[in-house]
Design a protein that fits this description.
The protein is an alpha+beta fold. It is built from 24 helices and 21 strands. Among the domains are: 152 residues; 80 residues, MutS, DNA mismatch repair protein, Chain A, domain 3 (Orthogonal Bundle), CATH 1.10.1420; 182 residues, P-loop containing nucleotide triphosphate hydrolases (Rossmann fold, 3-Layer(aba) Sandwich), CATH 3.40.50.300; 105 residues. The strands form 5 sheets. A 6-stranded mixed sheet has the order 8-9-10-7-11-12, with helices on both faces. A 5-stranded antiparallel sheet has the order 16-15-14-13-17. The two termini are 81 Å apart.
């Protein structure tokens, strides 16, 4: 912090070190944990801003998947700095671990998009030294436990191979030699030499060198004379191997020492990133955010005491909403004991201290804190026996410091100001201190029970009052801060609930000055009025919510009914169209058979009359469905067209408007004209152009429209499609529409009229139908189907 610096005594009273220790527990490295636990508010504004920017990015990055920081084990930099340990194999493995952690961290930040979202962290990663050559050298030379790997040098590999073969050969020779002295004999080592353990009784001493005797005296450790030369060679080989290992370790140690500054920078950078990650993990645990001090407002939204926020009862913790702004920068909090005033005071103090230390603050987004130079706190019992100070005297020492240092960049925190001495003198002293704090523009939170001090909020400029909610019916604190309202102490009511004799309570009430009782009654009435207002507001919110829910349910029910009617109408239309389509297909078959077999036309006319009757029934069904749909605000099917020369009609399948020319003929075909085009269609596909453009009539229920909706056409499905006069792309579009509707209607065949001409349109149709998912096969029309001028597609 700026200004006069850090007041460690105040931080101790706020238990700031307990909070930093809790954060340090989330660190992965010993260095980061030690730095976090010893953290203090930062006086340098630029450094603090950089730390907070990195903290904010760390909180966001930790919420994303994937690890973004790695660290090694131990602290090799301290070993190199103070020479506390030789750089042996395990120490070199520690160094390699940090080099590998640096490599892993750089790899985690290789993504350009990730780096652009978190530039401060990416810049910190970029500052990490790259020691890839040293990492590769240590990786090839060392095993995980610190032993040298065979690949450390060719000479090391050769010496180990020679020594291993020699030991195996000598051990095998000794095993064969020892078997002659019984099954209990075996081969072992004594010092650096291979020996055999044999029974002492009857062993001929001249055949071997006796190195030792077993504890029982029953066995001897002997080395056969013929094994002495081989043992000597092995000792020499071990000496050469040890010398080579020492040489390699010395070279590796020298390389590490030479890169000591870069290794120290790497460890420091990774430790700093680990510290930011630990803060971010703690922030996710307690619901904290990064806040950069600045501005002229102290606003805490949903703030919580850091130690309570990570405890077992954090779910029941009531968050604090508090705001101070000039000219009122001093908050006077009153209310009963055990109501949470001290917790409120510590929450504010810790929020300020954590923000200035670049630590997360347990509060919601939108919280703001001013930049302060000093925190001065006076909390709890400060009695000092060794200095001969009473509790009140110790408080006076702290209050003197506050009075001297109070300034616009100072936060003063006083718990039970004026307590511990005569109430009248204490109240007078408290009033004088409060006035001084306000006169100097200091920020502060002061808690009190003194009735005369509660009135200062309305009498001294710069003081804002507040209290903690209290349930007067159950006489229990609610721990909810109420700005702008002083709080009653409820001391006698609480005492009565705790079983203090009634006569004592009555006598206490009689002795209480009338002014105090009047103030308490006024505060109680004010608190009760506020409680009732909150209850009324709550009931109003509940009623509004119920009304909104009922309106929503009504809209949903109306929409469901309308949708149901629309669906029924469409299903009715589809079913009737399917019946009509099958009838038309049957009529087509009858006509074809009539032409082939030259049946009597009156039979065909009778079939035609039956189809016309079915068409009339379908039209009646469609009108009934339209009437039901219109009753629910839906859109009815298009009005029937005027079949007069020059009338404007619309072909539903093609989606175009045209001028009616002539028709319909006996098969229902009509001739239309659009510009220079002549279009053959069917009367069932036509509707009045004005009706088609009319759009949806407004319904009684307004509901949000979906982003997109597919609705099947209300027109009957065609049994043929006429493509004559169309360009290739127009023809394929019209053909696909006709195929879709014919398949949905359940037709077995679709006749495509393309004409003869030069055969261009026929070739387009043939290519389009070939391999079409809805077409099983195709053929040219028979004599009664249009011959070469038509193609019949058999549908799947």
């Amino acid at each position: 912090m700026g200004g006069n610096g850090v007041d460690d005594h105040s931080l101790k009273l706020l238990e700031f070190d307990r909070v930093t220790s809790a954060v340090a527990a989330f660190a992965a490295s010993a260095g980061a944990a030690r730095a976090l636990a010893a953290a203090r508010p930062i006086a340098d504004r630029a450094r603090r801003a950089a730390e907070i920017a990195r903290l904010a990015e760390a909180i966001r990055r930790t919420a994303e998947p994937g690890e973004w920081c790695a660290v090694g084990a131990g602290e090799p930099t301290r070993r190199l700095a103070d020479g506390s340990g030789a750089l042996d194999g395990p120490a070199l493995v520690e160094v390699r671990g940090w080099l590998e952690a640096g490599r892993a961290t750089r790899a985690a930040w290789a993504d350009a998009e990730l780096r652009s979202r978190h530039p401060a962290l990416a810049a910190a990663v970029d500052r990490l030294p790259e020691l890839e050559a040293l990492r590769a050298r240590l990786g090839a030379a060392l095993e995980p436990d610190g032993r040298l790997a065979d690949g450390a040098s060719p000479e090391l590999k050769r010496l180990r191979g020679t020594l291993g073969r020699g030991e195996r050969e000598l051990e095998e020779r000794l095993e064969r030699w020892a078997k002659r002295f019984g099954e209990q004999s075996y081969v072992t080592r004594h010092a650096d030499r291979f020996v055999a353990l044999v029974p002492a009784a009857g062993f001929p001493r001249r055949r071997a060198i006796v190195h030792d005797v077993s504890g029982s005296g029953q066995s001897l450790f002997v080395e056969p004379l013929e094994a002495c030369e081989a043992n000597n060679h092995l000792i020499e080989a071990r000496a050469e191997l040890t010398a080579e290992e020492h040489r390699i370790l010395s070279e590796l140690a020298e390389a590490v020492i030479a890169a000591g500054e870069e290794i120290a920078a790497l460890e420091a950078g990774l430790t700093q990133l680990d510290g930011a990650r630990a803060c971010a993990r703690w922030a996710r645990e307690v619901g904290a955010v990064a806040i950069e001090p600045g501005g002229e407002r102290l606003k805490l939204t949903a703030a919580r005491h850091p130690l309570l926020a990570q405890g077992e009862r954090r779910e029941a913790l009531v968050p604090l909403d508090l705001e101070l702004a000039p000219p009122a920068t001093l908050l006077l909090v009153s209310g009963p004991n055990m109501g949470g005033k001290t917790v409120l005071l510590k929450t504010v103090g810790l929020a300020v201290a954590l923000a200035h230390a670049a630590f997360p603050v347990p509060a919601a987004e939108g919280s703001r804190l001013p930049e302060l130079g000093e925190i001065l706190a006076d909390l709890g019992d400060e009695q000092s026996v060794d200095r001969g100070l009473s509790t009140f005297a110790a408080h006076l020492v702290r209050l003197r410091i506050m009075a001297e240092r109070a300034a616009p960049d100072t936060l003063v925190l006083c718990d039970e100001l004026g307590a511990g001495t005569d109430p009248e003198e204490g109240a007078a002293l408290a009033r004088a201190l409060v006035e001084r704090f306000c006169a100097r523009g200091a920020w502060g939170v002061v808690t009190t029970h003194l009735g005369s001090l509660k009135r200062a909020a309305g009498e001294v400029a710069g003081i804002a009052s507040g209290s903690l909610a209290f349930d007067p019916l159950r006489l229990q604190p609610l721990y909810r801060f109420q700005p702008g309202i002083p709080g009653a102490s409820h001391a006698l009511a609480v005492a009565e609930q705790l079983g203090v004799p009634e006569e004592v309570i009555a006598r206490a009430r009689a002795l209480t000055p009338e002014s105090v009782r009047a103030l308490e009654r006024l505060l109680a009435e004010l608190e009760e009025a506020r409680r009732r207002a909150e209850e009324e507001a709550g009931r109003a919110r509940d009623a509004a919510s119920l009304a909104t829910q009922a309106a929503l349910e009504h809209r949903e029910a109306a929409e469901a009914a309308r949708t149901r009617v629309v669906e029924l109408s469409r299903r009715l239309t589809r079913e009737s169209e399917a019946v009509l389509g099958h009838a038309r297909e049957l009529w087509q078959t009858v006509q074809r058979d009539a032409r082939r077999a030259e049946k009597r036309r009156d039979q065909a006319e009778a079939g035609r009359a039956g189809i016309e009757a079915v068409e009339r029934e379908v039209e009646e069904l469609r009108r009934a469905g339209n009437q039901a749909l219109e009753a629910f605000g839906g859109v009815a099917a298009g009005a029937p067209p005027r079949l007069e020369a020059g009338a404007r009609v619309r072909d539903r399948d093609l989606g175009v408007e045209a001028e009616f020319v002539s028709g319909p003929d006996r098969e229902g075909r009509v001739l239309l004209r659009r510009g220079s085009w002549s279009i053959q269609s069917h009367v069932s596909r036509l509707e009045d152009a004005g009706s088609a453009a009319s759009g949806r009539a407004p319904g009684p229920v307004a509901a949000p429209a979906p982003a997109a909706r597919w609705e099947p056409s209300e027109a009957p499905a065609p049994f043929e499609v006429d493509l004559r006069g169309m360009e290739a792309d127009q023809a394929t579009t019209a053909l696909d529409q006709a195929l879709d509707r014919a398949v949905l209607a359940g037709f077995g065949e679709l006749r495509i009229v393309h004409g003869v001409g030069r055969g261009v349109l026929r070739a387009v149709v043939e290519r389009h139908l070939r391999g079409h998912p809805q077409v099983a096969s195709q053929r040219l029309g028979d004599a009664g189907e249009g011959g070469r001028g038509a193609t019949v597609a058999k549908l799947r």
